[in-house]
Amino acid sequence: xxxPTTTAAAVxxxxxxxxxxxxxxxxxxxxxxxxxLIAGFxxxxxxxxxxxxxxxxxxxxRALVRTTLRRMAVALASSLTAGYLTPLxxxxxxxxxxxxxxxxxxxxxxxxxVLMFAIRRMAGTRETDGAQGGVK
Length: 136
Hints:
Elements: H1 8-18, E1 24-25, E2 28-29, H2 34-49, H3 61-93, H4 100-123
Antiparallel strand pairs: 1-2
């Protein structure tokens, strides 16, 4: 009687199910986990809607389109920030795996304010009352 053996396909399937899914763009693995991106996007939506982090500047069509595009850019940047920084922050803080998505949500929600502070600090400019285009 022959010895039972595993096929290469079974080994590949077992190895593929143990890995974490990652996004790939143009054949280049980005190292971003989709669940971090979604949690960061949700956090950025909460910051935009509840905290009014991207305020509206007028009621004309041009102002509404400009505000919509700014909000979309902030949501994209916040989700990418959460996708890249959450694993690093949670490794440095040694948090358990159950807090990872909550951390991504918090990073996505606070990404705009933290990044603006870091950019201003690195540029050496002082924060004034009208720092976001003169609108308070």
